[in-house]
Amino acid sequence: MEYAVIVRGLTKSYGGVPVLRGINLRVKRGEFLCIVGKNGTGKTTLLNAIAGLVEYSGEVMVNARTVGILGQRPALYPKLTVRENLDVFGRILGVRNVDLDLIEALGLKEYLDKPVEELSHGNVRKAEIVCTLLGDPDLLLLDEPLVSLDYESRVQFIGLLRKFKEEGRTVIAVTHFPEIMCPLCDRTFRIVDGNLKEESCSGLT
């Protein structure tokens, strides 16, 4: 069986306070996995460890051609327009042409030439989503992807995620919206006392 992500004995502390206590996880290629729960339980820390954005003890192995990371904190250049941001990130990833259908689907076309600092939180989030999907990643790490999106935009993005799942991409998503995300999930986990506990989506929606 081929795995996209393998985590062994992952531990992480902040200021001497343990947040993750020996996390073990195997994510199969093409699997859609959700992590739910309250703030402060370590969901973002686990995602950042998999992404290689924080130091940790233990072992993380990622088997993916390209990885798309959507974090909670703004990642765009505020003074640049959406188009200019896409150009910058596209150059970094070696992407020449942006998927205009994706921009159209998210309702972002009319904002392409506006500076990011002038956009609503929802439209900034849409621009971040487009940047995350540059390079056609086969592993997506999504931290609260539905935050700041209105109902219609959430529906549109869920449709994109469903398409990615059908294409066999691997997705690990942290979410406060299990009632929306869980129908897509193959497995759902909650972090309890620093350890992963698998839960049924039916009990979360």
Write the layout of secondary structure elements.
Layout: E1 3-14, E2 17-28, E3 32-36, H1 43-51, E4 57-62, E5 67-70, H2 82-93, H3 100-105, H4 121-133, E6 139-143, H5 151-166, E7 170-175, H6 178-181, E8 187-192, E9 195-199
Parallel strand pairs: 3-7, 3-8, 5-6, 6-7
Antiparallel strand pairs: 1-2, 1-4, 8-9
Descriptive notes:
- The chain has helices spanning 43-51, 82-93, 100-105, 121-133, 151-166, 178-181, and strands spanning 3-14, 17-28, 32-36, 57-62, 67-70, 139-143, 170-175, 187-192, 195-199.
- It has a single domain (3-203), classed as Rossmann fold (3-Layer(aba) Sandwich), CATH 3.40.50.300.
- It has a six-stranded mixed β-sheet, sandwiched between helices. Strands 2-1-4 form a three-stranded antiparallel β-sheet, covered by helices on one side.
- It is α/β, with parallel strands linked by helices and 205 residues long.
- It is globular and about 45 Å long.
- The chain is built from six helices and nine strands, in the order βββαββαααβαβαββ.
- β6 (139-143), α5 and β7 (170-175) form a beta-alpha-beta unit.
- Helix content is 29%, strand content 30%.
